[in-house]
Amino acid sequence: MNGSANVNSLEALHEWHAALCVFRTEALESMSSIVMEINRADSWLDDQLRGWQREQRDAEEEVLRCKNELQNRKFVGFDGRVPDCSVQEGNLRQAKDRLDHAREQTVKVRQWYHKMPKMIDEEYQPGARHLVNFLEAELPRALAMLNAQIDSLQAYLNLRVEPAAPPAKPV
């Protein structure tokens, strides 16, 4: 066996260590960004739910107003004629369509409101937890080991091998 280390570039090991440190920092920042985006999406769903519920209430009020207008218009006049109610009937149809749309959207948002946390827990959290554990526990240990090995190699390279004294001549 040779007995010497074949170290070609200690600088490459330093660069690799630095690159791993940068990766760790950027990965942890990315995980924080993802959590912020999840919170933003949750907040957005809250806003959407409140908005569609408000739209639904407004549409219900409009349907009631249109029904009242239609009922008031249907009264037979003094001359015995039934007035044309096509405009009021059209307004009522539009109001009902608006209400149906608002109800559909409220149902959809509620479905996502309940579906999104479940999807995050099932799809995202296990992998994210594993990655964060790696970045916060295992990678720092590995970096410390790499650093210790770099130090050992540096110490090895700094050793000065003194030439061995020639063997003594027999007298």
Quickly list its features.
2 helices; mainly alpha; 171 residues
Task: Characterise the protein shown here.
It is a single chain. The protein is an all-alpha fold and 171 residues long. It has one domain (12-74, 83-128, 135-156). It is built from two helices and no strands. It has helices at 10-73, 86-158. α1 packs antiparallel against α2. The longest helix is centred in the C-terminal third of the chain and has 73 residues, at 86-158. It is rod-shaped and about 150 Å long.
The number of helical runs is 2
**Which range does the strand content fall in?**
under 5%
Helix-strand string: HH
Poorly predicted runs: none
Query: Largest sheet, if any?
Result: none
Mean pLDDT: 89
- Assembly context of the chains: single chain
Shape: rod-shaped
Give the class from helix and strand content and strand pairing: mainly alpha
Query: How much helicity do the residues have?
Result: over 70%
Gyration radius (Cα, Å) is 38 Å
**Based on DSSP secondary structure assignment, what is the total number of beta strands?**
0
First-to-last CA distance: 34 Å
**Domain module tally:** 1
